[in-house]
Structures are given as C-alpha cells and as structure tokens.
Amino acid sequence: xxxxxxxxxxxxxxxxxxxxxxxxxxxxxxxxxxxxxxxxxxxxxxxxxxxxxxxxxxxxxxxxxxxxxxxxxxxxxxxxxxxxxxxxxxxxxxxxxxxxxxxxxxxxxxxxxxxxxxxxxxxxxxxxxxxxxxxxxxxxxxxxxxxxxxxxxxxxxxxxxxxxxxxxxxxxxxxxxxxxxxxxxxxxxxxxxxxxxxxxxxxxxxxxxxxxxxxxxxxxxxxxxxxxxxxxxxxxxxxxxxxxxxxxxxxxxxxxxxxxxxxxxxxxxxxxxxxxxxxxxxxxxxxxxxxxxxxxxxxxxxxxxxxxxxxxxxxxxxxxxxxxxxxxxxxxxxxxxxxxxxxxxxxxxxxxxxxxxxxxxxxxxxxxxxxxxxxxxxxxxxxxxxxxxxxxxxxxxxxxxxxxxxxxxxxxxxxxxxxxxxxxxxxxxxxxxxxxxxxxxxxxxxxxxxxxxxxxxxxxxxxxxxxxxxxxxxxxxxxxxxxxxxxxxxxxxxxxxxxxxxxxxxxxxxxxxxxxxxxxxxxxxxxxxxxx
Amino acid sequence: xxxxxxxxxxxxxxxxxxxxxxxxxxxxxxxxxxxxxxxxxxxxxxxxxxxxxxxxxxxxxxxxxxxxxxxxxxxxxxxxxxxxxxxxxxxxxxxxxxxxxxxxxxxxxxxxxxxxxxxxxxxxxxxxxxxxxxxxxxxxxxxxxxxxxxxxxxxxxxxxxxxxxxxxxxxxxxxxxxxxxxxxxxxxxxxxxxxxxxxxxxxxxxxxxxxxxxxxxxxxxxxxxxxxxxxxxxxxxxxxxxxxxxxxxxxxxxxxxxxxxxxxxxxxxxxxxxxxxxxxxxxxxxxxxxxxxxxxxxxxxxxxxxxxxxxxxxxxxxxxxxxxxxxxxxxxxxxxxxxxxxxxxxxxxxxxxxxxxxxxxxxxxxxxxxxxxxxxxxxxxxxxxxxxxxxxxxxxxxxxxxxxxxxxxxxxxxxxxxxxxxxxxxxxxxxxxxxxxxxxxxxxxxxxxxxxxxxxxxxxxxxxxxxxxxxxxxxxxxxxxxxxxxxxxxxxxxxxxxxxxxxxxxxxxxxxxxxxxxxxxxxxxxxxxxxxxxxxxxxxxxxxxxxxxxxxxxxxxxxxxxxxxxxxxxxxxxxxxxxxxxxxxxxxxxxxxxxxxxxxxxxxxxxxxxxxxxxxxxxxxxxxxxxxxxxxxxxxxxxxxxxxxxxxxxxxxxxxxxxxxxxxxxxxxxxxxxxxxxxxxxxxxxxxxxxxxxxxxxxxxxxxxxxxxxxxxxxxxxxxxxxxxxxxxxxxxxxxxxxxxxxxxxxxxxxxxxxxxxxxxxxxxxxxxxxxxxxxxxxxxxxxxxxxxxxxxxxxxxxxxxxxxxxxxxxxxxxxxxxxxxxxxxxxxxxxxxxxxxxxxxxxxxxxxxxxxxxxxxxxxxxxxxxxxxxxxxxxxxxxxxxxxxxxxxxxxxxxxxxxxxxxxxxxxxxxxxxxxxxxxxxxxxxxxxxxxxxxxxxxxxxxxxxxxxxxxxxxxxxxxxxxxxxxxxxxxxxxxxxxxxxxxxxxxxxxxxxxxx
Lengths: 532, 998
Known about the structure:
The complex is a heterodimer.
Chain A: H1 3-22, E1 34-35, H2 45-55, H3 81-90, E2 96-98, H4 105-109, H5 118-140, H6 143-149, H7 154-182, E3 185-186, E4 201-202, H8 204-218, H9 235-247, H10 249-253, H11 258-270, E5 294-298, H12 310-317, E6 337-339, H13 341-345, E7 407-411, H14 412-424, H15 431-446, H16 460-470, H17 477-483, H18 517-522
Antiparallel strand pairs in A: 2-6, 3-4, 5-7
Chain B: H1 3-16, E1 27-35, E2 46-49, E3 52-55, E4 61-67, E5 70-77, E6 81-82, E7 84-90, E8 95-97, E9 100-104, H2 107-110, E10 112-115, E11 118-121, E12 129-133, E13 156-159, E14 169-172, E15 185-188, E16 191-192, E17 216-222, H3 225-228, E18 239-244, E19 250-265, H4 274-284, H5 299-303, E20 307-319, E21 323-335, E22 342-356, E23 361-375, H6 383-390, H7 420-426, E24 428-445, E25 453-472, H8 477-482, E26 487-507, E27 516-538, E28 558-561, E29 564-580, E30 584-595, E31 604-615, H9 620-623, E32 628-642, E33 653-656, E34 663-665, E35 668-670, E36 673-675, E37 685-698, E38 703-722, E39 732-754, E40 761-778, E41 788-792, E42 800-804, E43 812-815, E44 818-821, E45 824-831, E46 838-840, E47 849-851, E48 858-868, E49 871-881, E50 884-887, H10 888-892, H11 911-915, E51 928-930, E52 933-947, E53 950-965, E54 979-980, E55 987-997
Parallel strand pairs in B: 1-8, 1-9, 15-18, 50-54
Antiparallel strand pairs in B: 1-4, 2-3, 2-5, 5-7, 6-9, 10-11, 12-17, 13-14, 15-16, 17-18, 19-20, 19-55, 20-21, 21-22, 22-23, 23-24, 24-25, 25-26, 26-27, 27-28, 27-29, 29-30, 30-31, 31-32, 32-37, 33-36, 34-35, 37-38, 38-39, 39-40, 40-48, 41-42, 42-43, 43-47, 44-45, 45-46, 48-49, 49-52, 50-51, 52-53, ...
C-alpha cells in the first residue's frame, strides 16, 4: 500500500474522529421563540404580559379563536373564562337551560354534577391560570428586577406600577370567583415559587380577607375611568368586586358586611363616572363599549379578539328555532340556550311587550313553548337572545362568527340593586334612596313611571326577582339564589332542578362546586368539599 | 462527560497511527470466497491458514498477511456451507491468490443480514431480526416502501390509510407509546431518516414515498431490543433497515419494468337513498319537506372513480473488479379511487462503490432524489366523503341559479351538508415534496493488528423541501356560510438532517482463545434543522389567482408563522459479538445517547442490551439428527429509548399571540405574551424487552422458522399530567410518568413444500402468526386520575370514544353497553356499571366502561408462491382476529334528530332504519363492531420468457382481491385507532406489468 496515501488517510480519519468526538454538547435552545431570559429586553413586553392577564378572561389561548391553548385537557372553545363562569352561574339556576348533551353539560343543567365534571375543572383551571399569570407578572416586575434589567425609564416604571395594581385586581377578581364557587383553595401569591409544592387549601374566610385587603390596598393605585381604561381595572371596578364580596360576606364567612357592601356600591354610584344607558338593551349589543353604564367589561372583537367562548357563545347559543341568525348579526345559530319557565314568568309578560317590562322585549316566542318538556329541544323554553352582534342602530359587527359585543361584567344597574339590598338588609343608607335607585331601573324598563314600585313593595324577595329581571343571564343568578337560601334544598323548585321536570329538592352541598378530581390528584393537600 | 471522548480519542489515536508493523519474511494469501453454485461472493466466511485467520468481506475478498512460510491447509468455513480445504505451500515474500468456492448446505443460514452498524450471517443472529429480499416483497401497485412487507413479517403490523401513497403506520410488537411516536426508526443505507422515529416530513402522504420501492434490495426489521438497542434512544419502536440495490457483476445491464393499473372502490358507507330520505323527512322533520327536491342522487357515485396508474422504472448497472454502480430512474402516477386524489413520483438513484489501495479502502456512495406531487381530495368542513354521506339524496347536483353552478341547500345555514361535487370542482389542495438523501461511506482496513481492524466513516445528508397549497374559493358554500369568504393555506417546510457516524470494527484473529470475537465501537452525531413556514388567510379579495399567488385579504386576516425546529442527537456506541464454534453466541451492546430534547437534569441516557444464543443443532447429541439443519435458542434483554416527541418541551418559552388573539387594552389592541411551564426533568421513554426465541430448520432449511416470546415494558412514558395550576404556569405539564406492557408471541415458518427443479412444479409457502396483548399499566402518579379520554369522534363537541386507563389496552373503547328490546337497541337504555342491570342513562353519562380495542389480538399472514416451468403464481393472505372498529359514520348520522339538527336536513346512515333512534347515541356499543377479517392482499400470475434472447417477465396482480369480514362499515382496517369516520375507502387494484432485462 502507498504509505503516503495511507498516512494521509490516517491523519484525516483521526482529525475527523477527534473533532467529532469533541462534540458532546447536546444543548439546542429554541430559536424562534423567546424565553424568560430575554423577553423583557423589550420594554413592550410588560404591556404585552399584563394584556395577557386580561386576555385570560376573554381568550382561550395565544391564537384566536383556537390554538396554543392556555388550559389543556379540555375542548379549547369550551374552556373560555366568561363562558365557563357564565354557565356555572346560570345553567343550574331557574333562569337558563341548554339543549346540548356535550360531556358534563347536562349535569350542570340539572344540579347533578360530580367531581370529574369537565366544566368544573375548566373553571378551576381558568381561575388559577389567572392567578398564576398575575403572580408571574408580579414576580417579573419587582423593583429589583426592573432595576437589574436597566431598560425601564421613569415613565414606564410608573406604568408598570399601575400594571401591578391591575394584576392584583385581576387576581382578586378570580379569587372572588373561587370563594364564590369552590369555597376554599390554595392561596398562592407572587411569593410562592413557580413549580414549587402546592400549598394546602386556604379556608373560605381567609381567602375572603385576602381579597378584601388586596382590593382596598390597590384602590389608590388604580385609575379613574377614561378612554385608556376601557376593559381595564379602575377604582370603581375594584369597588364593584368589593361590593359583591361584602354583599355575600354572610355566605362566605358567616359574618355579614352589608354596611361595607352599601358603602362600596354608594362609592361607585356617587363617583358620577357612570350613568344608565337610556336604552337597556344597548348594554348587550355590538357597540356596548359606548354604553355609559358599564363599569367593567370583558372586551371581544370580531377580528382581533376571537374566541368560541364569550359573547360568541352567548349570541350563537341563544339563537335557534324560527329565529333568523342575521337578526342577531351572526351567520348561524347553535340552538342551545333558552329560559326556564320560572324566569320567563317573572317578567309578567303579556304578548304585547310594550305594555310591560321592556327588558323582555327581545324575547323570542314564535314557535317556542314556555314549558321545557325536553331539555334537548330548542323550541321548548322561551328564547332570550339578550346578547346580539347588531349594534344599537341595527348594523352587524365586524365579523359574522365572532361578535364585537363585549361582556358587561359589572354595570351601574347592578350597583343600584346592591345598594338597595344592602340597605334592606340593614347595611345603612336610606330606604328612600334605595327606592329611588330601584325605580330608576324600573323607569327605564317601563319607559316611564308605570312600573314604579312603592316603599312597601320593596322587599327582599322583590329585589331577588328584580335582580333576575334586570341582570338576567349576566352571570349573577347562582350567587343571588345562594344568598337568599333558595338555590339548593327544596324551598324553591324550578324546572329540571335535580333532574326532573317538576324539580326536586337537592343537597345543600351543591352550594359549592366540588374540587376537581385532577386537583385532588395533583395536590393531595387539598380536601374535597363536603358532600362530594 | 468530557472524559469519555478524551479516552476514546486517545484509544483511536493509538490504534490508528500506531507505526506500521515491521516487515518480516512472511507471505500473503488473498482471494475470494464464493458460492459454488450461485457464483456469488460470500461475506463473513472464516478463512484460516495455520494460526492466521480472516473473514471475507462483502465482496468475498479475504486477505491473510504475515503468513509464515511453509505448507498448511487453507480452510474456509461458513455457516450453511460445507467447509473447503486446500493444501497450500507458501514461501516468504510470496503473495498467492487462492479463490475458494463453498457448496451450500443450508443457504438460509449463511445469508448476510443487515444489522445496525454492520451485517451478520443469518445463522449467527442472536436477536429477533427478519430480512426480506425483493423476491418476497408484496407485488402490485406499491407506492410506499413500508407496504412491501405488509403481512410478511411476524410481529409487524402495517396500517395503510387507503389513499394512494397515504401515510403508513407501522407497529412492531404493539404500540409502545401514547404521546411520543410509536413509529419505528427507518435507516436507509445506514442513514437514519426523520429527526426521531418515523420517516421525516412530507406534503401529507407517507414521507418514505421519496424512495422508489423498485430500488430496494432488502428490508430488515429489528424487532427485539437486543438488535435495536444499538440505536439507543430511537430504538424502542423497532428499527426498519432499508438497503438499496447495488450494481451486479458484468454489464452494463439495463433493466426496464413497467406496469399499468386500475383501481376501484370496494365498500362505501350505506346512507339512505332518496325515497328513504323523503320518507324519513316526512315523518321526523316535516318542516323541511318543502326544501326537498325530486332528484335521486347517489353522492358517493359522483365522487368516486376508477383510478388508473402507471409506473416506469429504468435502471442500468454494472460492476468491474474494483467498482460497482447502479443508476435508476423511476416515474409513477397513480390516481386514487376518490376524485381529486393523485400521487406522482419522479425518482433518481445512484449507487456507486469503489475499492482503492489494494482493497484496503472501500468507498460507497448512495445518492437519491425525488419529487413527489400529491393531489388531495378537498377536506373543507367534513370533506368530500363526509358531505357525500350527509348531503340530501333528493337534491340535484347542479343549480344554474347558484353562483357556483352547483346546487346547495337554501340559505347560508351553518348546519347542513354541502355539495361534495362542488367542493371537488372548486377547492384545490396539493403538495410537492422534493427530497434527497445521500451518503458517502468509507471502510478502511487498517494495516495494523493483522488487518483485523477496520475504520468506518459515514457522512450523510437528508434534505426535504415541501410546498403545499390549499385554496377554498370564496364562492363555495362552506366559505359563505362560515363567513371566511375564501381561505388560502401555504406551507413551505424544509428539513435538513446531517449525520456523521464513525466507528471501528475489530475482528479478533481466530485461533486465539476458544472462539471468535467481533468488536465495534463508535460515535455518531446527527442534527436536524427544520423551518415550517406557513401562511393562512381568509376573506380573499379575489378568487382569480386560484391556488397560485397570494391575494390580499379584505380584512387583513392573515396569519404567518415560521417556527424553527432544531434537534441534535449525539451517541457513543459499542458492541461485542462472541462466537464459539457457531455453537454459543453472545452479543453485548451499549449505547449512550445525548439528545437536545432531554431536560437539563437528564442530558444523557444509557441503553444496554445482551443476548445469548445456543445452537443446539451443533451439539453432538443432535448432530446425528440429519434432518435437523438448525436449532437455536435465543435469549435477549435490552433497554431502548424513545425520544420521538416534540422539541423544546423542557423550555419555558414565552409565546406571542396572533392577530386574532389580541386584547383590547383601554383604547388600543395589544398582542399578548404568555409564559409557559418548564420541565427540566424531561427524558426519554424507556422500554425494557425480554425476548426468548427458537430458530429451527429442517432438511437443509427447506423448512425453517422462528418462534419468539417477548415481554416489553415501557416506563417513563410521557403524559401531560394534571398539576396544581396554582403553582405552575399551566394546568398540565409533560412528565415521564406512565408505563405500558406489550407481551406476545410470534411465529414464522417458511417452507419449500415442493421443489420440482427448474422446469417442474415448485411450491413455497410462508406463514406468520403474531399475538400481542397490550396493557396500559399506569398513566398518573396518583390513583385518583384513572382515565384519560381519547379517540375524538364526529358528533357533539369534544366527544370521545376511547380511553386510556390502567389495566386495559391502550385506546380501549369507552362506551355504554346497549340494552336491547325485541331485538332492537333501546334508545337511552344501557347496562349499568356496576350492577349490569338495564337503566336509563341519557347520553350514556354514567355507565361507560372500557371494552375491546382497535388492535388485533392475532395477525396471521400467509404467502404462497408456485412455479411451473415459465409460469409463476403467488398470493398473500392476511387475517386479523379480535380487532374492533367504531363505526362513526353510522353513529353520527344514525338518528332521526339529525334531520332537524340543522336548518336543512342531513342525510342519515341506513342503520337508523334498524335502530329507529330519534336521538344520537354516540356512546352506544351498538356502533362498536368486531372487525376480524380475512383478506387476500394480493394474487399474482406471472410468465417468464425470452424475447430476442433477453429474459422477460409479464405478470398480472390483483391487490385486495377480497375481504371476508363481519364488519359493516367501510374497512375493517380503519386506521390505527379503529374509528371509521368517512375514511378513504379501500381500493381493489388490478395491475399488469412487464419487466425486461437487456
């Protein structure tokens, strides 16, 4: 053999082998995504992150309407915050029924859920997703970190301080939902490390104290309403959460706080920042962002904020039967949501709506039976297409699938009714003021004084019914019924309560949803709610 | 980790640059070992002269150096051959050339079988390895290489999706993973393809379609862990080694083969005809009677067709003393039996090998490139098949008043069938895949250590470029009713994989110690870089551009993305084979893999394997049993890994929102960012496999077979595990948590039942039997979560028909047991769990139970091949026993409520006539059917003759000649998950072909 060639080959081989063997680095970092190491090198990331914490209420993932979901293990469109929260607070009550047989839904309709129910798990996951996002935002925006990054100027720093208050608002809002629906749960803040061992569940009253102290603490840092705060936390939005939390304090802690509820509602009313929309229905249409009445809304948009939950669900699902989809600004009907008869009869509606309460003027009765003999038949139960993708002058929104309609989570009418109820329950204020507030809503509803009530008519039961008329299908009904002791048990029966058409008494454990099975396995320190 | 490569380099350096040994007064003997009758070179024969010994190379060459002068016997021996002995006298300084011819006794044993990083004689295999040559491949119209071995190898399930060239799924000894891939690793001429298990990327059909089946010489399946463990973290699902054809001695020789084929649909779903539909609407949805037309349209008849195909292959090959080469060209065009689906392939291949420096250096190169063009049947909203099922049969096809000219139900309703003929005519979907794989391998026999050491280097690339377009014009009905008003998808994906393998193999001199020792040790580096550029837009400003160009979106609804995916796998591997007189065989292997997909706490994994074989037939107590040509007991255990899961799972990436996922922030819309959960503990899934087997042969291997029992336990399976969402950034995190077991037996038997010689009647028959039981053992660390619902079906939203639950096979069906009354299923009534009494359970909410699963318990295969004179005849039969299929077409369209579920009536499945269901019963086991079957996969008749002195063969093949099954749906092999939801129907294909050599 040619020794020259042989040596050449030997040298080449050794070089190749040597170079190759030196390569033992298996680290390949992602290129087309960013990580926490560099995301905040871009100062815009702070706004993008706090927007995500808001977006957790409206969107299901990073891509609208679907993809890259926030919550795994569930149908993405199902697991949208407003949709799940709304369903869990409407479907088991006397107001609403849904025709569909999707997994877990029939049980929510009839107060027959178990701890494996996917909607219950969706709610739990959504609440804690909000908490986790808010906590991570707070972790990433401590003064130490901002200083260390060295790219935050004073103006941005001031904004970030407000963002931090907003993150705490959103965390409190979701913790309130947790208190209201689940009772207790782990109380996790930015002080807890990511991926650390989950803590045991905090009791309902300690969560209550946390939410109350947080909201009161951030009030000064939150802005007054204005063009730049639509859909964002304001002082008055925080007061509305407080008003609800206080109003239900007897349920949450055993100790009432009606005086504080009244004070919070009064603060919102007296701020002068809001006024009743002249037309009730305008609060629920595609241009409801222009309503002067809405205190806190979850914004949706046909082209920029697309989801299969939220108002996409509320508009489409309430449409069916002989209804014409174009009359609601959408391209189809999902044949789902109707009224249970008890809610319909509360309006005392004659065939001629004009004679009565115009808050039911949009009800659709053609081809719809009042009675719900079959849950799955859309034409049984009066249709109540409260939310619409047409605007106040009848023009459809920017997209026929995804409405522009925002979800009004808190509005002035609610504040009036909280004042009245807190006053009646001994929280201070004056009875005359309470009557005035109620009749402001009645006056708008009846287009005059024909529907006004007198002082003796203003009873607690009247207020419960009035809340159902004013706030129908706005996600308050379950909490209201529980506060009145009429939700579970047998004092008040409605169609399909407990699974029969006439309604049967149900267990008081249903006042709280069960802790989801997945949570129990992931965190053995959390104990199941009683009765499950 | 730095220590190991250092030692390794030092080892290599010492071995490779050691001074060439001082010359002594000795001689050299060289020559070739060949088969005396077949005249082909024999590799792996042991040639000894005195104390010197060597093994013959792939081309039969051997070289003995440093032979002391004198007279001694030159002996060549090889398993399956009678030994050859020749007395030789050699003087110092002489070089003698002695060729040796061996006479075959039991040829099967001496066949060279390709294994990971080398080859071995079949008789000395210690693992469960099956190699098929071209003569054993399935005939007929075969587009994807994997289909060549369907029904041919015990323990291997090949699931095709019926489309021409459609994606194949292969399961070797059952499903081994839930969330990582269960596909085997493919290795083509020593180059692992894809970037994990599986075959790489494509425009939508099988990624291995780039490889022309006509260029394949052998396919070898490594089934047990001892054979596959040399592939470490990619070996858990088994390994398929594909070797392409090389040039043959002589030449240049041309080969041309061609075939034409015609395919037709076998079975389609049975829907209501026009009269039945009208009757149903009259009774159950009279409000829609006014919408019904007077036509009698069978929509399926309008979307299927006879699919024609043609195939041309031309190759030229040759070989000289020092080089071999083969150049091949192929063209294939095959239409599917559903309109709009076509597969076309142009392929080019070159294999070239050259020996240099007195045979010390052998260089082989293989280059292949192809272009595949795939046309797809439109898939918009249920697709052509789904809409053919649900569109009203009373409605006409054409409507001159509609904007498209095709009839659609009145109104832009969200809920009704669309005209499938319109979709076929207007929507476009196609993809082009360019792929090239090439490698250069050098084997250098080092002039040290008595020539026993060979260094190998393999450099390879694998480049794929995919461009696909789907265009749904704005005027089509789905676009109008969903309000997208025209949709366009562009995908331009590229993947580049590079590979460097280098290893040393050392065949210790024979005569030292009681046996022979082979050692292999090496290093491998492979990297993958891929970019998935995509565009999606809606609201097209014009339809005029069609599937060319990108029109403006009137609403700006455009989504672009171009994620980069990169991965790297770095490995050290070694193997030792120890062979004592072909009687006791021991094989040990070890691989250490570092993967970019593993978390920081687990960057490297070790995958060992050991196998022992005892050839009882070599023992004295069996030597006298002359009819017994082989009896070997094999025992092996090995641990393999599975890293075929997505990249970057271990990183906490911030994800950006898309334009449709913005958030109104006061008075401006903001694109959001979201932090993700991280998992530094992520690692490979790990499978430990025990295999006990027998190889046996009688009458000089005229009857031969294997019998294997295996038990494979997969641990650390990746699952998305629910975590406490309060302290994590997600409610689910990937964890290595689950475990699963596959246990089974395999038997294969090959027989030469009659051997009539060249002109007489010959019959060979092969049988395979496989039995596998899959059991999921755990899916979650805590006991409270015992079920993960999977197997999404059509009907409702998020409805699933299958479950992952410990104690049951993976993807067991999860349904309610239907109650019957007077022979008819009773709507909403099921057997309770527990209790087994009939209860009312609307929507089957409370009484679901795991039952049956889609995997066959038994797979039986039989091939027979007959020759008589110039005629040949063969067939392949396949049977599955114990597999179940959920008939989703029947369940989703099987109730009268579907008539009024939309704003126009959907057509119904004919099962409604038997059930009378008025509400959907998706989760009733009425729709779960036993799908055992017997299928004639192919039948071939051939005739060989000479024309102008050149050999030719003409043949005719029928594929899928018949299927006998009790299953009522479209196909009892309805995908790996057994859900029959408007699947592409199976074709029966008639192929006629001719091959010529000149």
